[in-house]
Amino acid sequence: MSPEPGFVTVAVADGIATITFGHPRGNSLPGALLRELASTIEATGRRQDVTVIRLESSGTGPFCAGASFDELKAISTPQEGQHFFSGFAGVIQAMKRCPRFIVTRVQGKAAGGALGIIATSDYAIAHNSAAVRLSELAVGIGPFVVGPPIEHKIGRAHYCAMTVDFDWRDADWALRTGLYAKVTPSVEELDAAVAGLCLRLSKANPAAVALLKEVFWAGTEHWDTLLAERAGMSGSLVLSDFTRNAIAAFGAK
Q: How confident is the model at residue 1 (pLDDT cuts 50, 70, 90)?
């Protein structure tokens, strides 16, 4: 398993909770970090002194490189595989069920599972360098767990296209398809846009926000079962020789 656990922090001021996650390898996501992120979002959403959540990653580089390759390579059974990919399901469900709006700051490139986090955000603001890529097919699996929120956000046609060709797409493409709600040309403008929106939302009626979240995610009540099944798909595929060779080749680039 990855020797680097990464971290999740939370700070609250004036009704705004800032949740920050980080990992030295491109803000990638090992299983323990995924579970900590999910539990932090869940607990923060219940706090009476919180009216909006700002979600961000650490540093000035990539927003998130997706799943931890070290951990993917260490999976040895289908059960371990399903457990790992269920970590993404846990974050998605925690974000979806959170009664507070989640505004996500995307300062750099986002790949693989990171797109599931962005898509499950209620509003994502990105720097114009924040290209996106669904890279799962390149490593012998597929975006099974993160696919439902991405499809929910940008539609099936765009989701299928970015799954099949797994090329990088620029921030303007993500803006046009709705994955990002706003794109800024500078980090200073990114921070100002995120801070300004969070300030406005911190004054919103919490009861109205909670009801809007239910409206936004209507029709996804079956995702507990769906995401568990999808985690099983990825958990089995990651054990194949094809996938192990693809992960090794991809990681060596």
A: very low
